[in-house]
Amino acid sequence: MAPTDGISGLHHVTAIAGDPQTNIDYYMGFLGLKLVKLTVNFDDPGTYHLYYGDGVGHPGTIMTFFPWPEGVAGRQGTGQLTTTSFSIPEGALDFWVRRFKDRHMNFEGPVKRKDDEQVLTFSDPDGLGLEIVAHPKAKEHGGWDEGPIPPEHAIRGFHAVTLTEEGYESTVTMLTKALGFRLAHEDGNRFRYEVGMGGPGATVDVLCRPAAPRGVVNVGTVHHVAWRTPDDSQQKEWGQLLADSGRNVTTIIDRVYFHSIYFREPGGVLFEIATDPPGFTVDEDKSELGKSLKLPPWLESYRQHLEHSLPPVHLPDVTRPRRGTGTSVQAG
């Protein structure tokens, strides 16, 4: 039996970027997400880990990146999360169309889909597949109200993610039987599932593409997707349930801002179940989020080395884009 509260939706999506400054400029400066944590990959401390989200990085708003400046382009394909969709209010669609056009950035749409969605499809500078989805329920969530995007038009977190699979049956069996998802509707080779309350932030599309090549994780692809659980005790129950069902699942890992377990779904996508607490203000005040390099206690003794070896980055001046060059958050 699944834990009492079940999976409530998406927690975060982690992808591979190329140049860290280009990534910051795009996700903070263009998409208007707040850099809520500048830290390192705890498993590879010579690499940044950049976290973006709303004003404090609430679960369900968090897009994260490992920048690999020397990495090569990955390949999107089966066994991967191939599209990350962000949520905006219905009235914000025209604003975003103008924003793309004014900056001469490529996009497709808007296209109408089921569930009252209107979708803009595009890629980030590294080729990562993204969407902005206008939906009536998006207004129920808040965004970053101090960024470059007017609050009424700002991204409100995730809308959905798309998993591309060679075959969908084993994946959806795990989603429904183990994780508590339910089928919302089918549209050709696209199968939509919801969990918890459903709607924006609690939706996954499974796209069946048996003839597509196998995906290769590198720059411009997603590394893993994390689902939400409310606390440590329920996460422990998830770990036991998954192990009992035959999944190889990690022990609980301390990520400082949440606790994690990892496993692969049958199609090959790396899944994580992450706790909502303690959150990103556990080691710095809300007003200081993302402004300086934060390290976990076990890496503090390496701070001097890391500050000199990590490439310098700075925050774009998102509130006054025509004045100055931004606020320095140089690692050194």
Outline the secondary-structure elements.
Elements lengths: L9 E8 L2 H11 L3 E8 L2 E10 L8 E6 L12 E9 L4 H10 L5 E6 L3 E7 L5 E6 L23 E8 L3 H10 L3 E6 L2 E5 L8 E6 L13 E8 L2 H13 L8 E2 L4 E6 L5 E6 L27 H7 L4 E2 L11 E2 L4
How would you describe this protein?
This protein is α+β, with helices and mostly antiparallel strands and 332 residues long. The protein has one domain: 2,3-Dihydroxybiphenyl 1,2-Dioxygenase, domain 1 (Roll), CATH 3.10.180. Helices cover 15% and strands 33% of the residues. The chain has helices spanning 20-30, 93-102, 169-178, 232-244, 303-309; strands at 10-17, 34-41, 44-53, 62-67, 80-88, 108-113, 117-123, 129-134, 158-165, 182-187, 190-194, 203-208, 222-229, 253-254, 259-264, 270-275, 314-315, 327-328. An eight-stranded mixed sheet has the order 2-3-4-1-13-16-15-14. Strands 6-7-8-5-9-12-11-10 form an eight-stranded mixed sheet, with helices on one face. β10 and β11 form a beta hairpin. The longest helix has 13 residues, at 232-244. The relative contact order is 0.20. The model is unreliable at 320-326 (pLDDT under 50).
Mean pLDDT level:
93
CATH architecture: Roll
Overall domain count: 1
Number of strands: 18
Main sheet characteristics: 8 strands, mixed
**Helical content band:** 10-25%
Q: Describe the strand arrangement of the main beta sheet, using strand numbers.
A: 2-3-4-1-13-16-15-14
Residue stretches low in confidence (pLDDT < 50, at least 5 long) are 320-326
